[in-house]
């Protein structure tokens, strides 16, 4: 029974040491990690724009439909509280 407890204690110590070591690694290298993520995000955004601003983007004006006449709003009759106009 004592051997099982010792193995569990050693395994727990190894896991704790690994968590602390990875935390220290991230803390020490946080600037390079942030720069790497920024550059990957900029490349992803730049790639989705088609290689540059305005390269394959539509202008918009020629794509608009020709304006169609719209019906006028119906005239509102004298709406009120039933008080006659003098």
Overview of the structural elements:
It is a single chain. The protein has 86 residues and is mostly helical. It has a domain at 2-48. Helix content is 53%, strand content 0%. The protein is built from two helices and no strands. The protein has helices at 2-28, 30-48. The protein is elongated, with a radius of gyration of 35 Å. The mean pLDDT is 79.
How would you describe this structure in keywords?
86 residues; single chain; 2 helices
N-to-C span: 106 Å
Approximate strand percentage = under 5%
What is the SS-derived class? mainly alpha
Mean pLDDT across all amino acids: 79
- Helical proportion, percent range: 40-55%
Given the structure, what is the number of helices? 2
H/E element order: HH
Report a brief summary of the structure.
The protein contains two helices and no strands.
Per-chain topology:
Elements: H1 2-28, H2 30-48
């Amino acid at each position: 029974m004592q051997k099982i407890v010792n193995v569990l204690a050693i395994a727990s110590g190894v896991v704790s040491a690994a968590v602390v070591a990875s935390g220290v690694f991230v803390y020490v290298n946080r600037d390079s990690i942030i720069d790497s993520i920024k550059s990957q995000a900029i490349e992803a955004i730049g790639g989705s724009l088609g290689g540059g601003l305005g390269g394959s983007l539509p202008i918009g004006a020629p794509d608009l439909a020709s304006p169609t006449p719209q019906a006028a709003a119906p005239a509102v009759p004298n709406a009120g509280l039933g008080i006659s106009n003098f």
